[in-house]
Amino acid sequence: MEISNKSCQPLIPNFLYSSSASTKRLAHLDNWPTNQNSVSQILSSPERRVTMSSSSKRKFVIEAPSESGKVAMYSPAYYAVCTLSGGLSTGLTHTAVTPIDLVKCNMQIDPSKYKSISSGFGVLLKEQGVRGLFRGWAPTLLGYSAQGAGKYGLYEFFKKYYSDIAGPEYASKYKTLIYLAGSASAEIIADVALCPFEAVKVRVQTQPGFARGLSDGLPKIVKSEGALGLYKGIVPLWGRQIPYTMMKFASFETIVELLYKHAIPIPKEQCSSPFQLGVSFAGGYVAGIFCAVVSHPADNLVSFLNNSKGATVADAIKKLGMWGLFTRGLPLRIIMIGTLTGGQWGLYDAFKVFFGLPTTGGGPPIAAAAPVQV
Predict the structure, then answer these.
(1) What does the alpha-carbon distance between residue 335 and residue 21 come to, in Å, rounded to a whole number?
(2) Among the four residues 10, 54, 152, 317, which has the most C-beta atoms within 10 Å?
(3) How far is 78 from 357, CA to CA, in rounded Å?
(4) CA atoms of 321 and 365, how far apart (whole Å)
(5) What's this model's pTM, rounded to 2 decimal places?
């Protein structure tokens, strides 16, 4: 029984990931004249010179990062680009969803007043106006920019470091464990930078009249509770962010690898940059849903402890209950984290592409790459 060619179509239409113009140019090579005089006449014509000049500047395949003018993989410049890209992508996306985060925090702290997503937005608009929806944007921008810079930059470093320790065979065999270990190591350090800003953000957003923003909120906490008061929520923050980041990076890398392996019929390197960035956003959004569910109980604890002076984890569990700890504000957080994570991976990889680097995931094993170039 013969199989029709029509039944072997790829899952994703060809025009989305390849350039038709490039395909046509390759096809025309078969019809290129072999007669020397004909070739000379074609090359000497003004129309051909213009066409060749413009077409020579076009590229239908992403250049390898080791080419001249590109940032060398796993060099100091590479980690600097990843750090900068992580800071920009994380800070900008978290700031953009400040209104959603504001409603989510208030639903966790005062569910009797902020009963649902729609009513929560309604209460805030009525009491504080549109401007009030962006309360706490400054600590959000600065805190998550610092955290994102450390998280992404250190993740790339630890991922390569642990892969080198494991060696090529075990790095490929246990790559998911390397993703988990690298992301956890990076998040532990990154949260030290985030914690003071998170403490200010939660109080500004959930305690009207506490402070206008970061400039007066930070010294107010230090004056009343000391510098250590800014780190009161560090353990619950680790409890929220470490599982979140482990899920975020490991699931993203796995999802992207599966997409390029099973859903896209050509190698990643032959896909266009916009298509690769689309894969990054899609993989990030799905990973964000998993992240929200895994880290939500700790998120409730962070909001409660930062809002209640002298409160403990036991106090939070007693007041919220186990069901409330896992579910209060979860639907809104799924929307927020899915959008956040998808946007972060899309922007992060966009910045990397801008500097001549490949997008994250879907490539060869780390240990198989070239050694660090200084």
Answers:
(1) 38
(2) 152
(3) 8
(4) 44
(5) 0.73
